[in-house]
Design a protein that fits this description.
single chain; 29% helix; 9-stranded antiparallel sheet; 359 residues; 17 strands; 4-stranded parallel sheet; 11 helices; alpha+beta; binds adenosine monophosphate
Length: 359
């Protein structure tokens, strides 16, 4: 059990925009933030009280970081699970725990875990090499998707397979890395549930989000999602089971495919705040970022009630050059991440538009 006081320091692994928005929410509650990142001049470090710029396997730096903070969290799931374990060994409280990180880092382990928690996923098979892929594809039958087991995000490291002869090209495309073959899900829409669990087991849920992806990158989120109440209840129940099973503390997101028959198929588990929850900064009583800070610090959770109907649009790559147009739009709540370089598809900021509920 821990309870951090205002003035105490929160450690964040990772220096991206999620860390930046976490740091801003932490500051509002009187906390200081210490960012640990291997990226110089990162978006999060520029709003943090302290930064450690070091590799994720630098044990001396990790030890010093562990001693400097009251709790450690992470802002992206690809922080090596060994880093989280080294921090625990150095005496840090790590929330969410290293097991949650390890599961979310490996798409095969993630799906096995989800199935064990009675959460449905696409049919899947672990793939070791090209021969293995050909054999498994014969059994599963296209259409299918081949993804890398690790380090995939925003649609990176995946290849669509529409016929058996696509196997070689798909194996090349994912860099001949250990993979996962998934059956293609002809979904009607994509939705996500964002939930938080406090240190004594209290759970809150945000309203179900509806997400549009282009080329694997989230472009738009709308709340409320067009989904029956039973769908929201099923998503909440899945998140509850996952969090209880993991002894989870913090904000967790599950992305789902909503099928035509109203069933949900879980695609991905994010042990962190999520892009589809950015609307909560402007549209909910407690933002997902404040909620995560509350949870990991042992504070009571805040209400997750939605105040508005909301639409969140990501600002990607060169679109960020239009900041003056967004700034001049009174209907657009503008958030920019302070990234120095623009690259195609890079998340540079977002805009949230709000409407009265049900209008
Ligand atoms: P991911 O990298 O797993 O988050 O996938 C990125 C996007 O690819 C998802 O948001 C879907 O739009 C699509 N996708 C991934 N896996 C599947 C699947 N098994 N069936 C259909 N579409 C998928």
């Amino acid at each position: 059990m821990i309870a951090l006081k205002p003035g105490d320091r929160i450690g964040i692994l990772g220096g991206g925009q999620l860390g930046r928005m976490l740091a801003m929410a932490a500051a509002r509650l009187g906390f200081d933030v210490h960012v640990y990142t291997d990226e110089a001049d990162s978006p999060a470090s520029r709003v943090a009280a302290r930064t450690t710029l070091a590799a994720y396997d630098d044990h001396a730096a990790l030890g010093a970081f562990a001693r400097d903070v009251g709790v450690v969290t992470s802002e992206f799931e690809n922080v090596p699970a060994e880093t989280a374990e080294a921090l625990v060994a150095a005496g840090a409280v790590v929330r969410p725990n290293p097991r949650a990180l390890a599961i979310a880092q490996d798409r095969v382990e993630e799906k096995r875990f989800l199935n064990s928690a009675d959460v449905a996923t696409a049919p899947f098979s672990a793939i070791a090499d090209l021969q293995d892929l050909k054999g498994k594809l014969d059994l599963m039958k296209p259409p299918a998707i081949l993804k890398t087991r690790r380090l995939g995000y925003d649609g990176q490291g995946q290849a669509r397979i529409t016929k058996l002869t696509d196997a070689e090209a798909a194996w090349e495309k994912i860099g001949q890395a250990p993979g996962i073959l998934e059956g293609y899900c002809p979904f009607e829409r994509e939705v996500s549930i964002i939930a938080a669990r406090g240190e004594f087991g209290a759970i809150v849920f945000y309203d179900l989000c509806e997400n549009d992806h282009t080329g694997g990158i989230l472009t738009r989120t709308r709340v409320p999602a067009q989904a029956a109440p039973a769908v929201t209840a099923a998503a909440q129940e899945a998140a509850r089971r996952v969090m209880v099973e993991l002894g989870y503390v913090g904000v967790l997101t599950i992305e789902f495919f909503l099928m035509k028959d109203g069933t949900l198929v879980a695609n991905e588990l994010a042990p962190r705040v999520h892009n589809s929850g950015h609307w909560t900064i402007d549209g909910a009583v407690t933002s997902q970022f404040e909620q995560h800070v509350r949870a990991i610090c042992g504070w009571p959770l805040g209400p997750a009630d939605r105040l508005f109907d909301a639409e969140m649009i990501n600002i990607l790559g060169d679109e960020a050059h239009a900041w003056a147009r967004f700034a001049a739009d009174p209907g657009a709540r503008l958030h920019l991440y302070g990234k120095r370089d623009t690259r195609a598809g890079r998340k540079m900021g977002h805009v949230t538009r709000l409407k009265p509920r049900g209008s």
